[in-house]
Amino acid sequence: MTSLVDRLWYGKSRPLLLLTPLSWLYRAVAESRRRKATEAHAQKLSVPVVVVGNITAGGTGKSPLTAALVDTMQSAGWRPVVLSRGYGGNSSEYPLLVTEDTLSSLAGDEPVMLAQATGVPVVVDPDRLRGAAYALDNALGDVLISDDGLQHYRLPRDIELSVFDGSRGIGNGALIPVGPLREPVDRLNTVDFVIVNGAAAAEDNGRVPAKALSGIEHPHIYAMDLRPTRLVNLKTGETRSPESLHGQKIRSIAGIGNPTRFFDTLKALGAKQIAVPFPDHHRFRPEDLGTESGHLLVMTAKDAVKCRSFAPDNAWVLYVEAKMPEAFSKAVLEKLRVSAGTPTS
Asked: How far apart (Å, rounded) are the C-alpha atoms in residues 40 and 339?
């Protein structure tokens, strides 16, 4: 499926050009929804709202960036709360306060992963504005971070970040269904920061030259680097270094938006892998995990929350963290202070 998407959307050509009228309709509907929602909910909330998202379909690294923002804000004395739609979850009641032990079948895989990774309150609600009200009514924190919420315009926002995959960029530059764009590229004129996951040409200050990402120009483009930090056995909790995978035979599975990036990371670590991609948010079953003799099973943290109850003894989770430039962290914190109306230092 991923290779098909890459051919249809992320090459230079537009094989689905005949569907252009549907792209025009998609754009008209998206812009109408944005205009109506913005007009109806122009009132700011009582705490700053930071929205992490993208204008392309598929995985770009939004959740690792969200976790990195949580860490940056906590280090500066803020108490962040993460808001999520909870895609793939099936709770009977919303808002849902997610803990490390919440079932992914209820909350969705990404909210549980973020709760485990950050330790901060995570509120799931398809209506993010209602989720935000719940967080405020219960005094859960003093800043809200909406994960994958760029197009959820009912939620007022103070800071917007749009994330791109450095190798994919904007693909063929067309809107869905001809290309991968959820919104036109000129939408970036209204976001505060553009983040490039895996940028190959970052400058010393972490900035990314506009020419390094074809079709995108923005005054505040920063590089993000996803780095493997540890390998943890899903059953025993044993921890090893990612480098221990060098020369190791593994079966790698990934049900994420861009599994190729995960497989490339394992390849760079020197693993001898059998790579098995699954659709994003795939509901794993025991038979999906495979039984190759003499191989370790290695998966993402996002997939691990769905496999913990039936994973075999040889199942390991490769954890990654988003490394951000110091200049970016300072810029976000400065804008956060301004949004909150607190004095700047």
From this structure: 21
